[in-house]
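User: Here's a structure from my thesis project, written as structure tokens. My advisor, Dr. K., wants to see whether a designed sequence matches the one we expressed. Can you design one independently, without my sequence as a hint?
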């Protein structure tokens, strides 16, 4: 499986990553300790600072956009003023587990909430499932559709929805819709399409209760991920189990990884019910 991403080094609050031919240096609060290979950082095409923004220290220019393949999924990257690119590579191992699990039930109906640029959506779609992809950002839903086309999935059974998650879930419940698998990556703080506020510490339980109402009798799994600082996998598991009740549970840490010997960097946590 082709993979154009790797963590090259980290330390002193920064991470050095390779996205295809482009090497970038960006802030990372979890990057503790000293840099293991300081000389590698000279290869960065660009670096991001929360005050200065993107700068290119050498002769090379930061591309306006480019395409990489991460764990077999093609993704279009575009640097943003906030230092993002359009992919969170710490989730890539979960993409593989999503595809593997859903290949056992290729007719499954899947809901992906807070779906961003579509990595998990495409992981489900390549298993042959129908997917509902929801995000409050029209720009990110557009990017996700572009990514689907890059993976020859433009005609796959994917519903592309731009909406506030709570309003959408309430409508789906009234319609009697059911899903076999639900994936969600709620933000620490976010805004819906109409300016609605979402706070994970206040709204997560309500979101999960709505998801429970949408689960089919043949449900495969609910996968909950979080990038919220201070939230542990055990915290997520407790919340998920508290809402969904008894069932197989698993949990773990999402990490940025590179070649053997490169120190991994924590990137969030996940828990799975079912």
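Assistant: Designed independently from the structure alone:
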């Amino acid at each position: 499986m082709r993979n154009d991403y790797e963590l090259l080094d980290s330390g002193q609050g920064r991470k050095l990553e390779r996205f295809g031919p482009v090497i970038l240096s960006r802030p990372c609060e979890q990057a503790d300790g000293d840099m293991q290979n300081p000389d590698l950082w000279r290869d960065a095409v660009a670096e991001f600072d929360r005050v200065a923004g993107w700068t290119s220290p050498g002769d090379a220019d930061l591309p306006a956009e480019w395409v990489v393949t991460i764990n077999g999924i093609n993704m279009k990257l575009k640097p943003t003023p906030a230092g993002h690119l359009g992919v969170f590579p710490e989730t890539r191992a979960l993409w593989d587990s999503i595809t593997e699990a859903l290949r056992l039930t290729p007719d499954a109906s899947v809901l992906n909430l807070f779906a961003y640029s579509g990595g998990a959506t495409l992981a489900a779609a390549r298993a042959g499932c129908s997917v509902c992809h929801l995000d409050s950002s029209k720009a990110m839903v557009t990017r996700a559709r572009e990514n689907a086309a890059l993976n020859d999935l433009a005609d796959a059974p994917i519903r592309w929805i731009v909406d506030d998650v709570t309003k959408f879930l309430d409508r789906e419940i009234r319609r009697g819709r059911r899903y076999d698998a639900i994936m969600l990556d709620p933000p620490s703080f976010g805004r819906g399409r109409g300016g609605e506020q979402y706070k994970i510490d206040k709204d997560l339980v309500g979101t999960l209760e709505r998801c429970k109402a949408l689960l089919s009798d043949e449900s495969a799994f609910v996968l909950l991920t979080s990038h919220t600082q201070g939230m542990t996998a055990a915290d997520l598991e407790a919340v998920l189990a508290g809402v969904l009740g008894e069932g197989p549970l698993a949990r773990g840490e999402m990490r940025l990884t590179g070649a053997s010997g490169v120190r991994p960097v924590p990137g969030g946590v996940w828990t799975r019910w079912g």
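When you compare it with your expressed construct, this may help: The helical segments are 92-102, 119-125, 138-150, 165-175, 200-214, 233-244.
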